[in-house]
UniProtKB/TrEMBL annotation, chains A, B:
Residues 282-445 form the Acyl-CoA dehydrogenase/oxidase C-terminal domain. Residues 38-156 form the Acyl-CoA dehydrogenase/oxidase N-terminal domain. Keywords: FAD, Flavoprotein, Oxidoreductase. Residues 161-270 form the Acyl-CoA oxidase/dehydrogenase middle domain. This is Acyl-CoA dehydrogenase. Residues 462-580 form the Acetyl-CoA dehydrogenase-like C-terminal domain.
Length: 593, 593
């Protein structure tokens, strides 16, 4: 099946939903223009379609191999990586003064989405390198920046993120990797890390490892953690890869999916490293990487959903079975004509677009949080970014799983056969709700920190904006739009009611018992809101006769389907969120004797 | 992880929810007694726990191989199959006069559930053999019965079900396999069948293939189909395997899961076969096999959900991460103490039990439909069996997928690593919503044929029974039970409203557009109703001080959790069901230009 990056949908989300253009006003992106955006999206689409997508299935079949500490990636990955470096893609969203292209993060996310659609296993590598660049930009010393950034921002050197240890997963404070100071200001780090994505590979000439470790006499838990930079090859006097450092891959995980991505067990034996940020400041430094990675993982969810959708859509047009009541021409009809199959496709399409909208709005908010002129605007944007990040990560990755499962279902028996490729999307998609903080951790972050942040300011601002969209829809001259308002309003009310219930629990466990369900509701409602914003914009285009009129119509139709099928269910979810800790079965009821 | 068949839960579902005991009154099961049930469930549990479960992971890793038309199953499968035959399990639910044990089908389903939990890939074989036995019992000639049944009912000979061809999946009427009459009353069958489960293997000395084919001058479509019996080895004069027939496996599918089950491409070149039932009566004969298989696939959903639950429960008790607000003892606490994880486990447990209850009630109804004394009672039971069959198949298999996905999530990163085993459940579970009629086909059957059957009689009778349970709960002396009534009543109302809306659509496409969502609602409500029946029974046990009192309490607690989190959402799903054909996006909105 031929993948084609959905440039039109991405552009619509950038222009009309996330309002990327508004970033120009800050003056931070002098290069940003309509033409440049077009050129970048078109080039990225070519790279995704022609270079990455053809390696997706073979990468899954071949997987990676480890021999004598060296990892070999699947055929073609090395060449594709060279083209990635050559295209300058890694630096797209980073400042020009650091060697990047100085474009908004949201544009980088759009490019990343196409890459993830085309080849999730490959694109995980560049995705994590982005996170390390963020960490260095914020916390690196001038010397570190000068030494590392130019090589990492080109992608010539790649990067990882080394947090997890066997006993320390979601509870990162339990990690045991130790750092001892050397006389020259460097540190000697010893320990083992697991689940290290692209921890070792043959695509880049050097790999930079940000590693969380514990310094001598550090307090227990997360307060005792520091972040270190450990290069695979120590840069020599000219900044070129020199002596091999004592960090190596000692195992590759045998995973259900993303076989093309080497997931390594990494061993450090007095590996040489340097602090990134202050000693004991590891958690804050980690969260800089983590936040970027969380949003990017959400974008993976969008990417894999888009890929699965295209796959299923093509099959549903081609496969003929049965007689569809409203179809033209002789039976058997293409299965897309069967209402049940069409509905599955519609659900896939609508949820993918809602997830994309949430991720892009989150990315634009991150851009604004950095670059808006006034402190007030930056603070507003920061709150929105922080509120949306766990939703973007968890909701979009759950959509990735749901949509790829529907993709299998549309394929029928062919969906379960590996040759078809639909199964790979399903296997690949399943990791995204787990890594970079499980979706449960996201939900706990949302109800714990994000709801109460600034006295509930982010929630209040969001509700105001949603209600503005209700108003915009309700007063539209297009009779379709007031129908959207009728669905969005009660959904927003339910979202508010649920949020307030959670915020007013005396016993934290009562709120925690409904955290995941609240996050799901939040995504449902915010995703629907953003599709409604798209519908309002589409109506403007229709009224002004601007652009592709059929496409504008389709924006309204997708929003309507989502409103009728997803938003309509929002009020009914309230009681399930409010079940409380006492509503959970005890050990006996779970069958523990 | 050690699997232990959930004998107590199964027994409760048999005794208190499906009311298996009521079958005694018909006189059809003279052997059925409490002691025999206990003995059978205990023996079956041993077989599942000790023989089948240990082969599950190795079966997945090794898979099957095909060489020169011969399939080799994974190590241990052959021995396990011999033990299965030795135990007489295959004949459990078949009449004594045919060589079976003459016990109810529902008891057979209970045994099958344990086997599917323990090893889904293995147990698929025996499951399909059951279906062929049904077909022979109903449609076989006396001669066929005498020749084949004694060998199949012991499991010495296994059986398949050969329907699908590349162009004929859900639309079985498109099949092309041809049957030409021979002079001796036999037929010569030529064609290719795909997705043939256990089509060839090394466990049984002969394989009996029921095959759908087209006779000369047969009309097009499903009306032109006949069912043939094609043995791998033609029985000789003594009924022993004789000459090799011209039917062979020419390929094995490379599947996402159930690797231990050989899924064959079967080629017939003038294979010798005999009609089962009348010429052109293939569809009716197929549905006899199919109905039995559909319920059995639902039971697979229950089985894999149970397995995934036990796996996740064990991990959640052992894995320690973070500080849980209400946990005792020093952190890190077992993750089961985190409300979010406990809720996932509770959802897994409650939905698994609801799915079990639906399947067992369906099986008891099938028993009653055959054996009740009065024609009226048999007709009532038949309607209920037919109404519940698509729900048992589709809802329970969707639960299998959902629960195994939650199982992965609870394992965190470990869930995505194949060594853990959680991933296998997820991969295995995904086939069940597809085969034996996709879940979409089940939904179409439910809203098309089953809702309107007998002027809506099955629905009406079901609603009456549900409302009786509402009444029983509402008037209970245990204050927990009226809370159940408060959730069950509006859920039943929503179920009724949705059903009536679907039944009154003039345009069939309007109903079809909501079919899958209606089936989901039906399962949610019926599953909840049955858990409430269990709660009423548990309250009786509490009042009478009968049996394990903690266990009785737990029945009420699980019902309450289900009611608060699942039933509470039922009314909110109405509008999504009533979206109608016009509510589905058109081709343009789906991105087809």
């Amino acid at each position: 099946m031929t993948f084609r990056a959905p440039v039109q949908d991405i552009r619509f989300a950038l222009d009309e939903i996330a309002a990327m253009d508004g970033l120009k006003a800050s003056g931070a992106f002098p290069e940003l223009s309509e033409d440049l955006t077009t050129a970048i999206l078109d080039e990225a689409a070519k790279f995704a379609n022609d270079v990455l997508a053809p390696l997706n299935r073979t990468g899954d079949q071949q997987g990676c191999t480890l021999k004598d500490g060296e990892v070999t990636t699947p055929d073609g990955f090395k060449d594709a990586y060279a083209k990635y470096v050559e295209g300058g893609w890694q630096g797209l969203q980073f400042p020009a003064e650091a060697g990047g292209m100085g474009l908004p993060r949201v544009l980088g996310m759009a490019v990343m989405e196409m890459m993830q659609s085309a080849n999730m296993a490959f694109s995980l590598g560049p995705m994590l390198t982005n996170s390390a660049i963020e960490a260095l930009l914020v916390n690196g010393t001038d010397e570190q920046k000068a030494l590392y950034l130019p090589r990492i921002i080109t992608g010539e050197w790649s990067s990882t993120m080394q947090l997890t240890e066997p006993q320390a997963g979601s509870d990162v404070g339990l990690l045991k990797t130790k750092a001892e100071p050397n006389d020259d200001g460097s540190w000697s780090i010893t320990g083992q890390k697991i689940y290290i994505t692209w921890g070792e590979h043959d695509c880049a000439e050097n790999i930079i490892h940000p590693v969380l470790a514990r310094t001598p006499d550090a307090p227990e838990g997360t307060k005792g953690i520091s972040l270190f930079l450990i290069p695979k090859f120590l840069p020599d006097a000219n900044g070129n890869p020199g002596e091999r450092n004592a960090i190596k891959a000692i195992g590759l995980e045998h995973k259900m999916g993303i076989h093309g991505s080497p997931t390594c067990v990494m061993q450090m034996e007095n590996a040489k490293g340097w602090l990134i940020g202050p000693e004991l400041g590891g958690m804050a430094a980690m969260f800089i990487m983590m936040n970027s990675a969380r949003l990017a993982v959400g974008v993976q969810g969008v990417g894999i959903a888009e890929r699965a959708y295209q796959h299923a859509l093509a099959y549903a047009q081609e496969r003929r079975q049965g007689r569809a009541p409203d179809a033209e021409g002789p039976a058997p009809h293409p299965i897309i004509e069967h209402p049940d199959v069409r509905r599955m496709l519609a659900t896939m399409k609508a949820k993918t677009e809602a997830a994309r909208a949430i991720c892009y709005l989150c990315a634009v908010s991150a851009d604004e949080a950095e670059h808006e002129e006034s402190e007030e605007d930056r603070a507003f944007a920061k709150r929105r970014e922080e509120f949306l990040t766990p939703i973007a990560k968890a909701w979009a990755t759950d959509v990735g799983v749901e949509v790829s499962s529907l993709g299998i279902q549309i394929h029928g028996g062919m969906g379960f056969i590996e040759e078809t490729g639909a199964a790979q999307h399903y296997r690949d998609a399943r990791i995204a709700p787990i890594y970079e903080g499980t979706n449960g951790i996201q939900a706990i972050d949302l109800i714990g920190r994000k709801l109460s942040m600034g006295g509930g300011a982010a929630l209040k601002e969001l509700l105001e904006d949603i209600r503005q969209t209700v108003e915009d829809c309700a007063t539209s001259s297009n009779p379709e739009l007031p129908q959207l308002a009728k669905r969005l309003k009660p959904a927003a009310d339910a979202f508010e009611t649920a949020a307030k219930w959670l915020m007013t629990r005396e016993d934290r466990s009562d709120a925690l018992a409904g955290a995941t369900e609240f996050l799901a509701l939040s995504g449902d409602v915010i995703g629907g809101w953003l599709l409604c914003i798209g519908a309002v914009a589409a109506q403007r285009r229709l009224k002004e006769g601007q652009g592709d009129q059929d496409y504008a119509e389709s924006r309204i139709e997708i929003a309507r389907f989502y409103a009728e099928t997803v938003l309509s269910q929002a009020p009914g979810k309230l009681d399930s969120i409010r079940v409380g800790y006492e509503g959970l079965p005890d050990d006996l009821a779970l069958g523990i004797s």
